[in-house]
Amino acid sequence: MIRQDAFAGAGRLLKGALHCHTTRSDGRGAPDEVIRLHKANGYDFLAITDHNLYNYQNFSKETDITILPGMERDVRLSDKGVHCFHIVCIGPERDAGNGYAQDQRFEGGTLVKDALEFQRVLDDIHAHGNLTIYCHPEWSHTPACEFERLAGNFAMEIYNSDCAMQNDMDTNAACWDDLLAAGQRIFGVATDDGHAMDVHCNAWVLVRAENTIAGILNALRRGAFYASCGPEIHDFYVQDGIAVLECSPCVSAGFRAAYMPTRLTRSAAGDVTVARMKILPHTGYVRGVVKDAMGRRAWTNPIFF
């Protein structure tokens, strides 16, 4: 049996937000307000990732929630319009190898020609001890052929609430299979990218980890999590050549393996709780996706062959 890391081991899954904005940049809610909202919605951790402004601080001292250090770096490409690279950075505590300072600011809107030039920005972030997530490829107007050569991102956004609600974009793993099918080992996260307050708390990750900064980062780095906008995934494994996906009641559950057509398990009654498929080893991986009666999805990370 090969079980995806999110469903292996003991301990509960922690609910977390990896991409949140506040009035420290272009968000609508004050930092303490955003933190309290997430706690009220059952979150165990979040990262305050305001644009080009690093943060370690819990601005709501009375709220018991783990704050991941982080920020969002944004850089425009050299032509006009929306054409850019946005990267969420999350890192360890200052005394555990994070090279950034509280409230350290960075230049935004810098024009670069292509991904190879932007790689220097990524290399600097990684050298300062931070993990990186590639953000909203559809909204950024950057197809996979423009960012597939970027090295070092542990994950990419496969769902972004702000883009989904405002633009009907970045709703279901755009570009992810392009990278996976090419052999990249990159994980998928669902985020809110919340600016307006009603955008927060619509998408999250569920992480198998101890509720510490170091524990959460280690689990994220290993892919010991899944992404959701509502449905729960209970297990995902391959045994005897069969992929098995177990979930809360949904209208459909199925698998993605590169771009091979695969048949969904469906029920208009919304009572699908398990799906099975014979694996296709030549694709290099298999991942699962479910959809509930409200149209909300959840996504496993891949099992790699």
Summarize this structure as a short list of keywords or feature phrases.
alpha+beta, 305 residues, 6 helices, 2 domains, TIM Barrel, six-stranded mixed β-sheet, ten-stranded mixed β-sheet, Immunoglobulin-like, 20 strands
Question: What does the model show?
Answer:
The chain has 305 residues and is of the alpha+beta class. It has 2 domains: 2-228, Alpha-Beta Barrel (TIM Barrel), CATH 3.20.20.140; 233-304, Immunoglobulin-like (Sandwich). Helix content is 16%, strand content 33%. The protein has 6 helices and 20 strands. Strands 2, 3, 4, 11, 12, 15, 16, 18, 19 and 20 form a 10-stranded mixed β-sheet that branches. It has a 6-stranded mixed β-sheet with strand order 7-5-6-8-9-10. A 4-stranded antiparallel β-sheet has the order 1-13-14-17, with no helix packed on it. The longest helix has 13 residues, at 115-127. The model has no long low-confidence stretch (mean pLDDT 96).
Brief write-up:
The protein is of the alpha+beta class. The protein has helices at residues 31-40, 115-127, 144-147, 161-167, 176-181, 213-222, and strands at 2-3, 13-20, 45-48, 66-68, 70-77, 84-90, 111-112, 131-134, 155-160, 187-191, 204-208, 225-228, 233-239, 242-250, 252-256, 265-266, 272-278, 285-291, 297-299, 303-304.
Topology, element by element:
Blueprint: E1 2-3, E2 13-20, H1 31-40, E3 45-48, E4 66-68, E5 70-77, E6 84-90, E7 111-112, H2 115-127, E8 131-134, H3 144-147, E9 155-160, H4 161-167, H5 176-181, E10 187-191, E11 204-208, H6 213-222, E12 225-228, E13 233-239, E14 242-250, E15 252-256, E16 265-266, E17 272-278, E18 285-291, E19 297-299, E20 303-304
